[in-house]
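We store chain and fold; example below:
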Amino acid sequence: MPFSSIGDLAQTFVTRRANTRLTSELSKLGTELTTGLKRDKGTALSGDLGILTALERSVTELAALSSAAKEAKVFADATEARLGRIQDLVQDLGTKAVLSQGGVGGNVESAVIAAAQDAFATTVSSMNATGAGRFLFSGTATGTAPLRDADAILADLASFVAGAPDAASFNAAVDAYFGPGGGFETTDYQGTAQDLAPQRISQDESVDLGLRADSALFRDTLAGIARIALLDGGAFVGAPAERQAIIDTAIGGLRGADNGLTRERSVVGSAQGLIDRAITRNASETTALDQTRISLIGADPYETATRIEQTQVQLESLYTLTARLSRLNLANFL
């Protein structure tokens, strides 16, 4: 009776090829079960990868926008916190200055001057704060602190106003120092004249967080605080009317700064709301895209687990057969 057979070497080759195929299939199925996605995307999509490419591009863009929105949130939250701190200082100093009006030249005035010096230092420190690893108020120079040390600023300002014959001249000198081309602009401010570019946070939205430390709002705030702080140097000692006139001007400046800070915090608050909504929307869109992606190339976990079990049975059967064949010997049957 005719029959066909293969030699030992060929049998080994066939066995190895079957082992490689089953092992590879088991590895592929394990990956699909772990990731939930088919490894052979081309087969799953019948060779049409265009829609998957477009989908993954959208997912990548959304991931970048989500990251940018979260960074913008940190930056905006830090900005709001610093503006709030500065406004608290302005309001507290303004209140103390008003209450001191009946005690110029006494202990009450000294307490107000000390409070102004502390407020100036803390305000400068707040303006030099960072958020998301960047300085908040330096314009495009986010790696550079916007202002010099508070003591250095006050020292230069004290020298600039020294010798003013009266309160009017003193106040004019302070205005000039913080005005265009003054010492604050040319020496104290170390950021750029360019605002920070608006931050894109979604497909069609951006937020502007470009407030700089050399803005009119911050100049007026520092000027109002500095007028009182500079009285510690003995300016107009023996001239209580002049000192009171300086404090009165400072009170007016602090009220204006308070109103300006309220408006700016409102702007930042609106930006925070926009960012929060963008973060939520980006997350929803990402979820929708992920679900669409899974519907195209997702691997059914039950089906995959069943195929793994079947492949394991086949592989074990192959191992069993290989072991049995290896023990066959003609001498055992003679």
